[in-house]
Amino acid sequence: MAPTEQSPSNLSYGTYNSHVSEKKSQLPKIILIVLGVIVLLIAALMIQNAVTSGPKNDFMKLVAEQDSLYTFATSQQSNIQNNDLKKINSDVQILTLSVSSKLHGLLSEDFGLTDLTSDIVIAVTDTTSDAKLKEASLAGRYDTVYRTLLLNKVVHVIETIQIARDKASTKNGQQKLDNALTTLQSLQTQLSNLSL
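^ thats the sequence. predicted structure below, dont judge the formating
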């Protein structure tokens, strides 16, 4: 045999090596494809979570702020001296309780949540108003400072409703948020027009 010719044993050996080599080269491709699919699934889940958690968090924040507004108005009723401010504060309590009830219902309907998360509640907890009101009481300016604080809280809830309303997923949710917005804008007008 000439050196350029191959023996049958060489062909068999070469064919065998080439077959094993093909299997070895396909294994990394399969692993890369599987890893690619896993990465795409994880990315899709992260995107879905980001898209749905934004509106959910905005809505939970709205409900927590609305609850905080109701609690604030209720806890200060006995300290108010001005009769017009007492009347408006009573309206705030009645109307925000109604709105709050509807918003809790929407939280359950739209997001399947029955309660607020503690981090949202902590984030909206008012930690400064009590001190301001104590100072104002000592200075004989309680009603004036309370009206300003209450008005600021109402305006803030209005702004949060507008954000949540733009992200509401159902017509029913949008309608309830529109009603809440109208109610709070009415309270804002009353508080703004009150002169003490």
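The first helix runs from residue 8 to 76.
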